[in-house]
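Quarterly update from the structural biology core.
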Amino acid sequence: MKVVTWNVNGIRAREAQLTELLAAQAPDVVCLQETKAALDQIPPALVELPGYWSYWHGEKGYSGVALHLAKARFAERPAYFHPEFDHEHRIACARIGSTVGSMVLASIYVPNGGKDFDAKVRFIEALDAFVKDAHAHGEVLVLCGDYNVARERRDVHPTLQKEKEIGQTPGERAMFAGLLAHGLVDLGRRFAPDDDRLFTWWAPWRNLRQKNVGWRLDYVLASESLAAKARSCTASREFGTSDHGPVTAIFED
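Predicted structure, tokenized:
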């Protein structure tokens, strides 16, 4: 199973690039964030992606996520949903299988926190409870997306490290650690344990992307049982014109 997550920073500006990404990678699961479009604003060719069960969850000009599952792997349309704590079109989920022992896939966009830090805290706390409850019920999770938290100090380029800056604060990192403590594995770090330049977001100025001066904000988190079947997890700095690069994880069947 191949999973791709990408913060597109506006799906209308990234239509051709998404089509290119799907053709090049043929992923089974596609998670998108910051689509910034209601359903009637999605480019017509993307509303129902050929070969995918599609779910767009957003409103005009703000946030928005999407989750697409390949019909070749998932024969029936999955049960799409979003949790009760999602009030701003920030998480799209699909449950595969029965409630007990099922797999839950999610595309997640955690609030940045710059305008309303308390909203960010509430979202992560609710996500923490969601993970804990899902694991308590025997579900397997794959939670992909832009968490707007650099997990560790080394997940920010040395020239940009400021632990009082939102996204780097000790409190946010402690909340991220709490998520992982519920039995999730950060696959990006698992496969690159010594890479201190493993970034997925770059500010769009001063050629920071070309210089790889960025932050790691985009993750594939998987339940330990599924993480044991992961073969790789890579970030693509060179692809696309979003300020984020896609992250791809591959699991054994």
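Helices lie at 15-25, 44-47, 117-136, 170-181, 187-191, 208-211, 224-227.
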